[in-house]
Structure formats: structure tokens, C-alpha cells
Design brief:
single chain, Immunoglobulin-like, 10 helices, binds 2-acetamido-2-deoxy-beta-D-glucopyranose
Length: about 575
Amino acid sequence: MMMMMMLQIILLLTESVLVSSYALNSTVQCERPDAKTTRRVRAGESLYLPCPNLQCYEETENRLHVWFRNLSRTKQVEQIGTEGSERVHYHQSALYILWLNLNDTGRYITRWWYAEDECDEFETEVVVYEEFSTDLLYHTMPEQKVSGIYCPVCEYQQGSIVWYKVCLGGCCFLFWQNFALIPNQEFARVLRIPNSSKESEGIYTCVCTWEHHGIKHNSSGSRRLIIKEQTISSPPKFLLPINNSVVFADVGSEVILNCSVFFGLTVCDRCSIRWEKNGIRPSGLNGYEQKYRRMDGTIQSVLTITEVSESDLRSEFACKAEDSVEVIFVSVTLKSRASVFCVILACICTFLVLLLVGGVLKWFALDLVLFLRQIFVKLYRKEDGKLYDAYVIYQKNNLDEMTSKTVSDFVSGSLLTVLESYYGFKLFIHGRDDLPGEDCINLIETEIQLSRRLIIILTPGASTDKSNVSPEAYDLQVGLHQALVQGETGVILIQLGQMQDYTHLPLGLQHLLCKNSPLLWRDGESSPNSRFWKRVRYQMPVASSCQKSSRSRSLKASFQCQGLLV
Ligand SMILES: *[C@@H]1O[C@H](CO)[C@@H](O)[C@H](O)[C@H]1NC(C)=O
Ligand SMILES: *[C@@H]1O[C@H](CO)[C@@H](O)[C@H](O)[C@H]1NC(C)=O
Ligand SMILES: *[C@@H]1O[C@H](CO)[C@@H](O)[C@H](O)[C@H]1NC(C)=O
Ligand SMILES: *[C@@H]1O[C@H](CO)[C@@H](O)[C@H](O)[C@H]1NC(C)=O
């Protein structure tokens, strides 16, 4: 045990001898791992200066610290002593400069031996100020919200702390008497600031009182608190590009993507924008170049793709804008012009095909309806108690020769051939289906009621002579009454030849003509498949299938009628 102690003492002695021989005319070059640090202090206070490197400060066991100084006044390097009675002395890794004066300004060097022939050197520049000055302020970032302020001195010492506050502006450069003591903050290393606001701004000074060899010393440090304008932060606004837009490009060509974001006119240090390709910044990649520009609250980023590749066409390019609150983005995709051309062509083709189909449908709609009606209505036909498909009304008397011939040709020709023979409709034709010469008013009413449609044939010269109630004039009246007043029977108007107007026709007929335009029959449309007959059939009910009974029944009705008249 004793041996060990002796050995240690001998070791220590040799070390100190070694050091003292090294110290001044040192042949060993020490490493300088850290940059120079600076301490700004006030004259009259005292400085406790720890070795600026944390390892150098904390590792004192079996290590040797030697302090030197090179005062600005003398420009001479001199070793500092360790005597506690001296105003400037050191104890291991800490230097004491008591009651600072302006002559203490200079460079202070700590030489730290951590092995016999290995050492580091750390330098601190101490600047002593006669009076309080803003140069003495410790650095603080402007913040929007703070919860408190750290005292920048007495970090490694025991001491009592008092906080003062000075307003900003003109009074800042006045002296200590203007510093207002903040109550209830003694011993607080952190000054709490609840609800920081613009009023909280100012210079905060903490004075740390510490004891050395029974004597009290003061060290102070000041910070300026700046509260940033509480901007009603509006999110960044994209001026360019349009979100989810498409940029046309060809493989191999150059494309320039522009992004422009407005961040507002207040200073925004953390605002930035960038282009990303599938979430990765392409700036570093070959063939991509990104440039930035800042002006008037707007940041622009221009991404140049020198040669668009297939992978670019499949990728999503996003411009991301970041402010202190959030990151927002807009997306852009590249499309090759060729594919766009194809899409447009396809669209046009589809449109044309649709147009064609529409036209064909319109042209064949009538045929289609007739065809379908034949199938469905025949299947689901219900007995309606009617005997005829249509009652034909036309004028026979009071017509000029030409018209009379046209009418009779039409009625006994085309009408009968097409509707009755060809399509199997059952028609009641006055003068054919009643007994000739009979004037049978009741018969007319009955037959009209037994008909599903009225076919009224309009002729140019037709006029209604009200004094002479001919059967055809009467059946027209009954028919119109049935169609207009009772609304039971559908009317099909067929016009033979051109007409100037319809004023010569009965009012009821004119009224019907206002609602439905007549089907115009021209000579020569005798083919059962002509458009005219299709339109007639379209307005007709589905043909009754039992054509044979038509004549016999109508004859029977005629006989009944005769019986009634007798
Ligand atoms: C002391 O410091 C001054 C600069 O402040 C420098 O010019 C001078 O060379 C230093 N002296 C020595 C001996 O290093
Ligand atoms: C500082 O140095 C100057 C000149 O070297 C001397 O006159 C003065 O007394 C010194 N001041 C202090 C406080 O030691
Ligand atoms: C230290 O500062 C306090 C005020 O914080 C003051 O009352 C005291 O006199 C100062 N002491 C020295 C030695 O300057
Ligand atoms: C752009 O569109 C995407 C969705 O496609 C959306 O997530 C994003 O928020 C939009 N960006 C902006 C700035 O509106």
C-alpha cells in the first residue's frame, strides 16, 4: 500500500517536473482540435473560465492542465500561476479571473496533457467591456413562442441567480439602474416566461453570485428575446404548376418543369420548395438540374430534364413546398405527345361511330318499333272488344273530278291493298262495308265505337256543307266528337296532295291538325315498305290477325242496323 502511494507521488513529481520543463520552451507541438471560442465579459465582474472542451474540463484525474495567456496589451505568452491569492490563477481545468479589468483582454490557452507526450490545446479569447453593450449579448434565435430563457453563465458553478429585464429600443444602452429586477426568480437557472408575446421582448440579464475563497463574485450574461410576428400563417400558395396537370413531352427531348410558390411577404427562413421524382430529389441524378430563385415572397424552382426517358413518362413529379407548419405538394405527370394524339384520335373515332349509330337508329327506329311491337303486342294482346282497326273517313261528294279520282284511287287502291291485304288490318270503309244506299246514322256511331283508330283523309277541295248532312260529313262529325271530346279513339290524318292551308276544314279537324301534322301521301308511294306506310302503321294499332271474319261481321252489323231502321 505504502509502495503504491510512494510510486504515485514519484509519478506526479516527475510529471510536474516534466511539464515545467516542457511548459515554457515546449518542444512538443500540441493538437488544436477545436476552434477558438470567445467570451465577452464586463469589467468589474469576475470570470470563471472552464476549459472550453468538455473532455478537457471534466477529465482531471491523472491529467495535467497548464494555462497560458497572451494579453492584447503585452502580446507576450506567459504562464498563469495556480496560487489562490493571485487575481488571475487556475485550478486544474478552470481559470479564475477576478475583478476583470480592460487589461485582461487577450487570448487564454489551456494545454491539456492526457499522456506523457501528448497534449491538446484550447484557446479562448476573452474580451472585457467597460460598460454594458449589445456585443455582450448571447446569441438567441427569434421565436414565435418561448417558454423560458436559459442563464448563459454559471453553467458549471454553484451560485445564486438574479434576473433583470431591460426593454428594447432607446433605453437599452442605459446602465444597470434601468434593469428591472424580476421578482420571485432567485436561483432560477431558467427564467420562465408564461404566455410569451410581443411584450415579452427585451434584454434579459441574469447575475450569478458565486463564492471563491470566501469572497462573493458576480458573473452576468444577457440575452435578447425577440418574438417573431405572429403571422396568421396562410399556407403556401402554388402559382405553378396546376395540380395533377399533364406536361407533354417526347422521349429524348428536353423538358422544363416550373414550380412557383407564394409564401407571403413576411420573412420565412424555413420556407423552401423542391421538385421530387417519385418522392426522390432528382437534383443529384444525371440529366436533372434544379435551380432556385427567391423574390417578393415567392420561391421558384425550375427542374430541367435534359432528356426525357421512358421512366420519366411513368413517374410522378411533385413540387413540394415546406413552411414551418407543413409540407404541401402538387403533382405533374409527363405524357408523350404521340400517346395523346392516339387518345384524341380514339375520341374522334368513337364520336363518329356514335354519330353513325345514332343516325342509323333514328333512320330505322320506325322499323324497329314496328318489328318489336309486332312481337310483343301480339304476345300480350288483350281483347278490347273492338271490331275494326280503323274507320276510314273520306269525302266522296262535292269534289272536283281530279280530287275525286285521287281519293277513290287512294282509298280503294293503296289503302286497301297495303293495310288490308298486305298487313292484315281490318278497316271499315264507308260505302264498302255498309250496304249501298243506306243512310244509317246509328250504324256509323256503332262502327266508329268499334274501331281502334280513325283514318281521316284530307283532300284539297274538301268542304263541309252543313246543310246537306251526308253520311261522310256525319261520320266525320261523330268521329271528331269521339276523338276530341271522349278522347277514346286515336286519329290518323292522311293528306292527299299539297294544301295551302286547312281553313276549309271543320274546326275540330283544324284543332287536331294543330296537334298532329298529317301524313302526306304522294302518288307512287304504293310500296307497302315505303316510309309513308311505315308511319301509318306506326300510328295504327297492331293488326288484328283474324282478317277473315271482318266482312261477315260488318255485314251482320249492317243487317242489325237495317233491322233497327225498319
Ligand atoms: C499574441 O497574440 C497576438 C495577437 O493577439 C499575436 O500577434 C502574437 O504573435 C501572440 N504572441 C505569441 C508569442 O504567440
Ligand atoms: C492597465 O495597463 C495600463 C498600462 O499598461 C496601466 O496603466 C493600468 O493601470 C492597467 N490597469 C489595471 C486595472 O491594471
Ligand atoms: C453582485 O451583484 C449584486 C446584485 O445582483 C450586487 O448587489 C452586488 O453588490 C454585486 N457584488 C459585487 C461584488 O459586485
Ligand atoms: C394535389 O392533389 C393531390 C391529390 O391528387 C392532393 O393530395 C394534394 O393535396 C393536392 N395539392 C394541393 C396543393 O391542393
